[in-house]
Write a structure and sequence with these properties.
Strand order of the largest sheet: 3-4-5-6
Helix content: 25-40%
Structural class: alpha+beta
Radius of gyration: 19 Å
Distance between the termini: 57 Å
Strand content: 15-25%
Order of helices and strands: HEEHHEEEE
Number of strands: 6
Length: 167
């Protein structure tokens, strides 16, 4: 019986350590809620969790460029969508990326609603771009985050079930 309790305790401690490591790792990727937002020469204080735009001209889309070269444009496009509405969902992000020139057939997006019918805390979205993934995440409580990553072995960018993009 003692061995069974030791295994359980080891499993619980291992899971807690992993959760702690993920929390610490993700804590460095937060949006500064009190930084001034700058767009076309104006500045304002955003609501907590809202991303901000860097001063200067907006980045340009380079269809023949690499995913890392287009990450600033991907970010700019998503931030403009987020700042443009109150209740941003996956469809808003996908429509914004498509309007900006990204190929909609190469996109993935998570669901806006949980299986229990609650609003998701955040949404994840991606664009497969020249065999690399531009991946973004947005949630009012978690802020905006993005990265470039290699595709998964499934040739997808996002892990798990995603929402069909059928509009």
């Amino acid at each position: 019986m003692r061995l069974k309790h030791q295994r359980f305790a080891t499993g619980v401690l291992g899971a807690a350590a992993l959760a702690g490591a993920l929390t610490v790792g993700l804590a460095a990727c937060t949006t500064a809620p009190d930084a001034p937002a700058t767009s076309a020469g104006t500045s304002a204080k955003p609501a907590p969790g809202l991303p901000t735009l860097e001063p200067g001209p907006p980045p340009e889309f380079t269809p023949e460029g690499t995913a890392p070269e287009n990450l600033p444009f991907f970010d700019y496009t998503n931030i403009m969508v987020i700042l443009g509405g109150d209740d941003i969902g996956g469809r808003d992000i996908i429509d914004g990326l498509a309007a900006a020139g990204f190929d909609k057939s190469q996109m993935e997006v998570s669901r806006d609603v949980t299986p229990t019918g609650l609003r998701a805390d955040s949404i994840q979205f991606s664009v497969m771009f020249h065999d690399e993934c531009l991946i973004g995440q947005w949630g009012a409580g978690t802020g905006y985050h993005s990265m470039v990553a290699a595709p998964l072995a499934t040739d997808q960018c996002l892990v798990g079930a995603t929402r069909p993009i059928d509009w």
